[in-house]
Amino acid sequence: MSKYSFYPGCSMESSARAYLDSTLALQSSLDLQLDEVKDWNCCGATEYAATHLLPSYALVGRNLALAAQPSHGAPAAPTLVAGCSACYLNLAKTDYYMRQSGDLAERVNTALAAGGLHYQPGAVKVRHLLDILINDIGLAQIKAKVTRPLKGWRVAAYYGCQVPRPDYDHRFQNAEYPMQMEQLMQALGATVIDFPLKTHCCGGHMTQISEATSYELIRRLIQGADQYRADLLVTLCPMCQLNLDAYQVEMNKFFKTSYHVPVIFFTQLIGLAFGIDPVQLGFGREFISASALLKDKLGVDVPVAEEAVAAPPRPRRGQPEGLPMPRMPRSGQLGQEE
User: Fold this and answer.
1) Is the pTM of this model over 0.85?
2) Residue 149 is part of which domain span?
3) H helices present in the chain, as ranges
């Protein structure tokens, strides 16, 4: 059995619950064990590093220090797996910059010492869940477990902008045009369409700052998938899934369009191809329902979850005083506050 330390992050336990449930549902089929890091904390998402650099690294460093403890894996370079793109990027980035900068490592560990922790840079290997499934479990083993092939499913693979780049430890084949998720979908029997926008940004938290900008970024992706006649978008990022799913209705209203493109996590499709109950995989929780697709392609009825019936989140209007703006550290001052 392949064992790893696992960092779920905040999104997978809330808005991206379908991602977590489907991930956990795959463990027995793939002889995979994900041991959740005890007492983990939020990674700070994207914004915190832009406003408070050193505290943001210390926040992430705490998770690395916890994952490095023997109870969470082998003492020599345990592997920490993250499914969320922002979590993965923050964990990998913090470890990388602590390896590169002794000054930053010292400052972070001074902060961690207040909680009785210490992190030796490089003590943990940070990897994304997709990387684990492709390179450790392997496409051959995944294909062998398929009992319900996704034949006739036209799938657009969407990575978003945070996982394949900057790719500090060279986990992905091509930062601008990765193909791992396409290879995985083909192993499940799906038809993979060409989707040039696969690593374009979904807008992140732009929905809270500028409706026009955020809806345009969402529109480009949804329209692109629709133009290529995709049945659905498959993603590996909770924020991307939230934006493209929950705000698709608002985007349609804004542009007076009528797109209906379900946005599903790649783990949900793996589980579906393995014959796992769609409800157990979180199907029915999406706002843009995939129920018609499941009924048409597989003859499966999926009830709509209560949270999907509720109104999607509305964009929050910007405050008059504006939002904190990012400040890049000056050369030679990595890890120092302005």
Assistant:
1) yes
2) 141-309
3) 9-12, 17-25, 27-30, 47-51, 53-68, 85-100, 102-113, 129-132, 139-144, 180-187, 211-227, 238-246, 248-255, 266-273, 291-298, 306-309
